[in-house]
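Standup notes
- DV: blocked on the single-chain target, sequence here:
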Amino acid sequence: MFACKILVVEDEKILASNIRKSLQKLGYSVLEITKSGEEAIKKVAENHPHLVLIDSYLAGEIDGVHVADIIQNHFHVPVVFLIDGSVYKKLQKNQLSEPFSYIVKPFVESDLRFAIEMALYKHQTKKILYEEKQRLAAIINSMGCAVIVTYANGCIQMMNPIAEIITGWKQSEAFEKDLVEVVSLVDKDVGEKIENLATYVIEAGEVLNLPENCILITKDGKEISIGDNVAPIRDQNGNITGAVLVFQDITKRKQTEAQLMRNAFYDGLTELPNRVLFLDRLRQTIERSKRRSDYYFAVLFLDLDGFKEINDRFGHGIGDDFLVAIARRLESCLRGGDTVARFGGDEFTVLLEDIKDITDATNVAKRIQDSLRLPVNLNGYQLSTTASIGITWNFSNYEEPATLLRDADIAMYRAKRQGKATYAIFS
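- DV (later): unblocked, structure below
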C-alpha cells in the first residue's frame, strides 16, 4: 500500500517525536522532522512530500504561517497547521478561515488522521478542478474566436462570421455602427451597462480584459457569457488606428465550472450536501458557538433500518429512487437554516443550528421517524422504513467536527441495539 509522505515542522522535540510515532502508527511515512521554517522550505524543495504538518508559531526569522504560504503557493503542497490550544484564540481570523487547515494541540490520533485526510482530499479536489479548468481553456483556445475591428472613432469596420453568429448581427448591418450598438455588454457583477470599449482602449492605449462576468446581449435579446479582451490597433509608426475586440462564448465553461463546484460539495444521487460540505458547515457552526455562550446546536446521525433488504428485494434502481425520496422527506422535516447531508450509502446527517435545548433535537428525530413511516410509492410498490438516530449537541464544547460526529455515530449504534426505529442521545 502506498504510504503518504509527511514532513513535520515542529521545534518542540518531545512533541515532534510523539507526532512521528502517531503518524507511523496511522500508516503514514514521516519524511523528516525539521525545526525551522527555512529548513522546511529546503526539505520540501528536495523531497516533495505529500503534506506538511507545521507549527504555526516557529522560532526563527519566518513564522509558520509565512512558511506555509510559501509551501502552498510555490510548491503546491497541502499544509495543516499545528496550533497550540493556549494561542488558538489569539490567531487572526484570516489564518483560520480555510476549512480543514489546522488541528489544535493536544489532539488524539483519530483527529490527526481526520485533519490529514481532509487536507489531502481538499488538495486533490482543487487539483482536479484546476486541471479541468486548464483542459477547458485549451479546448476553448483551439476554437475559432469572434473578431470585431473598429475605426479610430469606435465604429465597426469589420466582423468575422463567428462574431456574426454570436451577436446575431450581419457585417453588412453592423458596418460603421457604433460598437456599443452592436456589442451590447453588461457587467453582471455590478449590473451596469459597459460603454464603448473600443473608444476606451484607443484613448488609454492599452489592452483591456473583459469583466469576469461579462454578458453580451445579442440582437434578439439573448444573454451570452463572453470572455477575452479589447486591444488597440497600431500602425507601423505606433499610431493607434482603431481597436480589435476578440471574444468567445464561454457559457458552457461557466456552466461546467459551476457543475464541477457542485460535484465537489453535493451528492450526485440525492442532490443533498455531501460529507465535505457538511463537515465544513459543522466546523463553522462550532466556531460560531465559541463566540456565543448561548448558541446551541445538535447533530443527528441517521442509518436507515432495513435498507439492504429493499435493495436486495427490489434492485438497486428502486433502492436509489428510494434514497432520493427519503432525502426529500428529511428536507421537509427541517427548517430552512438547517442542513441534511448524505454521508454515504444509507447514512444521513442533520445539523440543527441555533436550538434552545436538546428537546428541539429529539422533536426533530421524532418528526423524521413519523415521516419515514409513511409509505413511498415506487413502481407500484409501497415502501417504508425507519431510522436509528444518534444525537449529540454542543454541551461538551466540541473543538472538532470529527469528535462530534464520532459521538453521534456511537449514539446511533446504541439506538440500533435498542431495537431500531428510535433515537439515542450521546452521554
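- Follow-up: The longest strand covers residues 223-234.
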